[in-house]
Amino acid sequence: MTDHAMPGTQRRLAGKFAIVTASTAGIGLYTALRLLQEGARVMISSRKQSSVDQALSFLREQPHVDPSRVHGVVCHVGSPQQLEAMVQEAVRFARRTGNASNADECIDIVVSNAAVNPAAGPILETDTAVIDKVLDINLKSAIEFVKQVRPYLRPRSSVVFVSSYTAYNPSPPIGMYAVSKTALLGLTRALAEELGGTEARIRVNAVAPGIVPTNFSQALVANEESRAHFEDATMLKALGRPEEIASVVAFLSSEDASYVTGECVLVAGGMVASRL
Predict the structure, then answer these.
(1) Which of 56, 64, 149 is nearest to 107 (CA)?
(2) Which residues sit opposite 209 in a β-bridge?
(3) Contacts of 268 (CB under 8 A, 6+ apart)
């Protein structure tokens, strides 16, 4: 891992507390970094303790990051019990490091980033167990996460789901994964209506990244031919970087987006999904 300083000196999230799931690599890790660099306290998580430890070490060494403002736990988002334990540990960390006047309301930013794609191929040839796993992790866990965190959200909090450009045109060989990401678009609209109409005025949005070469998507750009194909499908003729997705999540989490809810921001370099 290398150092990545935040452009400029914005501190839009000073005093805020965030939880980011699946945040020890790729988009999740750089989202946690961006939120930290903008002044938030952040709870990260991963399925493996070694991944949490490595990510914490990386984050605490970065410019504009106060090491005491980031904490991490092991959490498999497919387990409601582990999600509850993560949220409770986040609440303890938030209360210990913050100065909330109402200790019950101590979380400001929720980023649901966890996803799996265990198999590729036509949907109608996909094993039922694989379908269950995709929906459990990519959709149901996102709902459960918001359920668990809802009692602790401050007024005007922000929830951000990480969807995908494939949500707009699900197709082989990752059709089932894409359909689960399409469902997140519907969930974003539904929860924006459900939570925005309360006195707390909680905002719910999503980001839809294009191709970002991380460990998760490495198979899509495993050779020069496929990489060139996806680069050519963008208007900028370049693949994305995790930092570029993180910056949009930070915007949606900030007061700069105070009148934005129920939306999905496509962050894909001008990629048109139908061209693929």
Answers:
(1) 149
(2) 267
(3) 165, 208, 209, 210, 211, 234, 240
